[in-house]
């Protein structure tokens, strides 16, 4: 079986995935190692494959598998919404898990279902981290959808200000989202911690914007969400459980020669 003995320092079979604009390198292995340096190398846009994050699937007795998730700067993150959809598709197509799977992440157990090229994930229970507050002339909502997110609602997402986003990211150690409401849809732009830039999509960020809008009764239990990439995703909430659905794409598979 390919990839059973993958270790850092050997040739590795890897896949590159795109999940609504958030891109990932994914592989599976039996060996649990610190892969922070490998994440930086693989994710490098010029010298590597290029990705926002690295996902490593490992065996786990109780669940279909467990993952290690690294941002492109090598930092570990407990959750990545788009990453859950990409890795569920990878696990199913590699024969590592059935269509409906449960896997362990740093934030807890995730359930995903693969429906062709679309994947729906049930995220971890969202938590409100603080009362809403004013800063930089904006109102901020702070919640955790697996990782911490600041959310501000604006008239137009073109008002996304990277300087403010970066400053808020470091002050609160959180990802930062600007969201625009349009009927029952949200347009979202996210500055991601660990990528240290705006990405084309952030799943837990879209979930945080949806959850904040839902708590304020600005959207119903279902809403469409559009990240910077313009792709369409679907959010819903049932009894405090967030579901997040959208297409993913395997871009290519290759052997990474190290
Ligand atoms: N892109 C992800 C979030 C990845 C983790 C984040 N950058 C952090 O370090 O908190 C998503 O789709 O949720």
Automatic annotation (TrEMBL):
Tagged with keyword Protein biosynthesis: no
Cellular location(s): Cytoplasm
Keyword Amino-acid biosynthesis: yes
GO biological process: lysine biosynthetic process via diaminopimelate
EC number(s) reported in the record: 5.1.1.7
Domain of life: Bacteria
TM regions (residue ranges): none
Enzyme class: isomerase
Site (Could be important to modulate the pK values of the two catalytic cysteine residues): 149, 192
Pathway as given in its UniProt record: Amino-acid biosynthesis; L-lysine biosynthesis via DAP pathway; DL-2,6-diaminopimelate from LL-2,6-diaminopimelate: step 1/1
Residues forming the catalytic site: 80, 202
Record keywords: Amino-acid biosynthesis, Cytoplasm, Isomerase, Lysine biosynthesis
Any Pfam family the entry gives: DAP_epimerase
Catalytic activity: (2S,6S)-2,6-diaminopimelate = meso-2,6-diaminopimelate
Cellular compartments per GO CC: cytosol
Residues engaged in binding substrate: 22, 71, 81-82, 175, 192-193, 203-204
Family matches, as Gene3D superfamilies: Diaminopimelate Epimerase, Chain A, domain 1 (3.10.310.10)
GO MF term set: diaminopimelate epimerase activity
Subunit field text: Homodimer.
Protein's job: Catalyzes the stereoinversion of LL-2,6-diaminopimelate (L,L-DAP) to meso-diaminopimelate (meso-DAP), a precursor of L-lysine and an essential component of the bacterial peptidoglycan.
Sequence similarity: Belongs to the diaminopimelate epimerase family.
PANTHER family, A to Z: DIAMINOPIMELATE EPIMERASE, DIAMINOPIMELATE EPIMERASE, CHLOROPLASTIC
Protein's name in the database: Diaminopimelate epimerase
Organism of provenance: Sulfurospirillum barnesii (strain ATCC 700032 / DSM 10660 / SES-3)
